[in-house]
Amino acid sequence: MSELVVLTFDDTEQAGAALEALKKARSEGYLKIDDAAVIVKDESGKVDIKNQLDTGTKWGAVGGGLIGLMLASIFFPLAGLAIGAIGGALVGKSLNLGVDKKFVKDVTETLKPGMSALFVIGSGNPDVVIASLRPFQGTIYQTTLPTEAVEELHAALKKKE
Questions:
Q1: Which contiguous run of DSSP H or E holds residue 73?
Q2: How far apart (Å, rounded) are the C-alpha atoms in residues 75 and 84?
Q3: pLDDT tens-digit profile of 87-130?
Q4: Element containing residue 36 per DSSP (H, E)
Q5: Where are the domains of the chain?
Q6: Which of 4, 92, 96, 161 is deepest in the core (most CB within 10 A)?
């Protein structure tokens, strides 16, 4: 099983700092992080997504990768994000991942303009992730992703390549 942990912040800067703390814990062998992204919702409500773990490059509205599909499943139906290169089939698959609806509702309702969030997909002990993030004074959300859902996303990404 993989865990999806989201930490939301009342400003646009703390999510990046929290990710640096996770990267440090990962480099010390305490965490296994499959993917991570920083999301910033500016004052006008525009959502900016940056995949900070893999390449550090800025995505358009939503880019490829496992976290990209997860974010599409969370933000696409609610925020009207353009899906670009992901394509309809992949978004369709990501919308049916079995992610807890209350989790999605809580995260999307919390992320207001002028805020940021850190999304992390990983496995192992989620308490280590939460302990690493607690000093940042954000709101923590956590849900378990079924192994089958993660495998389906990986398979869909391989087909798209």
A1: helix 66-79
A2: 14
A3: 334 444 444 555 667 777 788 788 899 999 988 887 766 677 67
A4: strand 32-41
A5: 2-160
A6: 4
8 contacts 41 by C-beta, under 8 angstroms = no
* Contact criterion met (CB below 8 Å) for 22 and 132: yes
Give the burial class of 158: count Cβ atoms within 10 A of its Cβ; 0-12 exposed, 13-18 middle, 19 or more buried: exposed
Asked if 79 and 47 count as a contact pair (C-beta separation under 8 A), the reply is yes
Angle (CA) 52-17-45 rounded to 5° is 70
Which has the closest alpha carbon to 117: 154, 74, 152, 80? 74
- Residues 120, 128: contact at Cβ < 8 Å? no
Report residue 24 as tokens: 């440090």
* CA gap 51, 70 in Å, rounded: 12
Q: How far is the C-alpha of 78 from the C-alpha of 80, rounded, in Å?
A: 6
